[in-house]
Amino acid sequence: MDVRKGPWTAEEDSILFNYVNSHGEGRWNAAARSAGLKRSGKSCRLRWLNYLRPSVKRGNITLQEQLLILDLHFQLGNRWSKIARYLPGRTDNEIKNYWRTRVQKQARQLKYDVNSKGFRDTMRYVWMPRLLERIQASTDSIPVISIAIDSDVDQPPQSHLDPTHSSPSKSSWVNSHVASTTSISNSISDQVQLQVSPVSDIVENFKLIDTSEKDEMVVLTDQGYDRDTMNEWIGWEESLENGLWNEQDMLFLQQQFSAQFEFDDVTPNSN
DNA sequence: AATAAATACAACCGCTCTTCT
DNA sequence: AAGAAGAGCGGTTGTATTTAT
């Protein structure tokens, strides 16, 4: 049995597309056989689900979608298919690829381990707010956009995601998800709520710098930060009272980081 | 201009869990 | 009840395209 592998041709695509259209999804081995495709059923299923299916969305991942992916990954980890359920038209494969190519790349450039606390904090307190800013800038009809980062991120994701269990106090991100997935990309009337968690993990992260120990400086330079930047941070950090982070502080933090981030411009896809 | 290196995305693989017969 | 087929998942690889040298 010669079973074809590798990229699908336009001809194979049209055969599979027509077959599924008239016979429906499922029973992929049989489908492959009776459609006359020299492909495994598994390959046909994947091709349909990830590419041919009319509902799959083509084109760049939007800012809103990026934000959603980051947030959901926080809560769910590498549960790509679960994440994909919140992004209509996007496949688990696509999201996984996005994560690996963009997010992991960013971590590499910052010399972070992608799972490290430092990188997670950077994403959460810098990258995501910055994304939000850009969303706000690009959808100027939305009067207020704000971020919701739950202060209790360590709780199981179900309580965030299962509507039956989400209490009002914990529903901020969920609400933003709903807004994002259902209407932000299409509508201009939705708002996303902002509540930055008052005392963040990142405070502790910066305490490290505050000690001004040489060793720790070296560690941080190893992570990709130059000495001048770190000195600025130290001065800045010392100026902060132990306590709440206000909006200005967050802005400052974002500015410190933002130069290190590149964000892809989302250009309308031509096809 | 040529080619090497990097990137992005599509597709595959091995495995588990579920459903069907 | 059990084995086979189907479906789904996450990780990895292959390849076409883009970018750098």
Automatic annotation (TrEMBL):
Residues 153-174 are annotated as: Disordered. GO terms for molecular function: DNA-binding transcription factor activity; sequence-specific DNA binding. Keywords: DNA-binding, Nucleus, Repeat, Transcription, Transcription regulation. Residues 164-174 have a biased composition (Polar residues). The keyword DNA damage does not apply. Residues 1-52, 53-103 form the Myb-like domain. Signal peptide: none annotated. Pfam families: Myb_DNA-binding. Residues 1-56, 57-107 form the HTH myb-type domain. GO terms for cellular component: nucleus. InterPro entries: EOBI/EOBII-like_plant, Homeodomain-like_sf, Myb_dom, SANT/Myb. It is found in: Nucleus. CDD domains: SANT. This is Transcription factor MYB78-like. Its main location: nucleus. The keyword Protein transport does not apply.
